[in-house]
Amino acid sequence: MSLWEYANPKKFTETVTPLIPWVLGLAAICLVASLIWGVFFTPEDYRQGATVKIIYLHVPSALMAINAWFMMLVASLIWLVRRHHVSALAAKAAAPVGMVMVLIAIATGAIWGKPMWGTYWAWDPRLTSFLILFLFYLGYMALWAAVDDADTAADLTSVLCIVGSVFAVLSRYAVLFWNQGLHQGASLSLDAEEHVADVFYYPLLVSIAGFVLLFLGLVLLRTRSEIALRRAAALDRRAEARAAATTGEPA
Amino acid sequence: MTGLLGDYAGEVISAYIVSLALIGGLVWLSALQARRARKQLKRAESRHG
């Protein structure tokens, strides 16, 4: 069995339909468990006090905001190279989810920033690159909406996605490239010495799992919807062409 | 709840409210889109079979 079989819209729909409720249900369980664990059963940070509890929303949403764009990049490249419609629709479906993740990251970051930095916003490299990423998400969605021909829209948005990847990379590594910003270094690292203390780390991992599953479930759901809408439009077009052929009028 | 969160209760609670509202809105809009797509496809299939 090849992975490319799922490029068939019918096969994709049949496969993901039973999975969606399970994925979204698991996401809800992980999110509720991690947020209750984080708020009620973890201590305050010795310097940041209770504001550290915002980490369970801020870090996973920021992580997903960047990774959603990379998922869109992979899907866009598959579209450009192999012309699989499902991959273009998956990229389109992921954009609103990624945009909401950026919004959550920026909003929670601002709320967290006010008591810690004394300001909601600063033109810090990471914050600025996130704002640009947010604008790229908006532009990407606007471009899909602005172009009538679906294949042309997929081509143009794929190119925009490739260009925007530069800012997604910058968002990820801005804190490493420039040291003059207010934003702290990465909270998570493969190096055990560098990440947050274990008492915050474990609920954070559960929260990240919840956000990943939420993203996956919503992307599958929205891709299935996009496939259904595309098929309905194709059926309507075919019927119009048939009707025009019978009456002798141009379709 | 506010006692549990000390001096920063307002910040923590507002961060959770904003985030959960955004997630809830996204899930709701996605479910609406799924319902609309299903209806549209069913109508197209029954009309043009």
In short:
The complex is a heterodimer of chains A (251) and B (49). By secondary structure, chain A is mainly alpha-helical. Chain A has helices at 9-16, 19-40, 55-82, 85-117, 125-146, 150-177, 198-247.
Helices, strands, pairings?
The complex is a heterodimer of chains A (251) and B (49).
Chain A: H1 9-16, H2 19-40, H3 55-82, H4 85-117, H5 125-146, H6 150-177, H7 198-247
Helix pairs in contact in A: 1-7, 2-7, 3-4, 3-6, 3-7, 4-5, 4-7, 5-6
Chain B: H1 2-5, H2 9-48
Key structural traits:
heterodimer, A: 251 residues, mainly alpha, B: 49 residues, 2 helices, rod-shaped, cytochrome c-type biogenesis (chain A), heme binding (chain A), membrane (chain A)
Shape of chain A: elongated
Structural class estimated from helices and strands of chain A? mainly alpha
Helix content of chain B: over 70%
* Poorly predicted parts of chain A: none
The fraction of residues assigned to DSSP E strands of chain A is under 5%
How many beta strands in the DSSP annotation of chain A? Answer: 0
Largest sheet of chain A: none
Taken together, the total number of domains of chain A comes to: 1
Instruction: Please give the share of residues in helix of chain A.
Output: over 70%
The average pLDDT of chain B is 90
Spans of at least 5 consecutive residues with low confidence of chain B: none
Q: What is the first-to-last residue Cα distance of chain B?
A: 57 Å
Number of helices of chain B: 2
Number of structural domains of chain B: 1
Largest sheet of chain B: none
The number of helices of chain A is 7
What is the strand tally of chain B? 0
Strand content bin of chain B: under 5%
Radius of gyration of chain A: 21 Å
Secondary-structure element series of chain B: HH
Mean pLDDT of chain A: 89
Protein name (chain B): Heme exporter protein D
Function (chain B): Required for the export of heme to the periplasm for the biogenesis of c-type cytochromes.
Transmembrane segments (chain B): 12-32
Family (chain B): Belongs to the CcmD/CycX/HelD family.
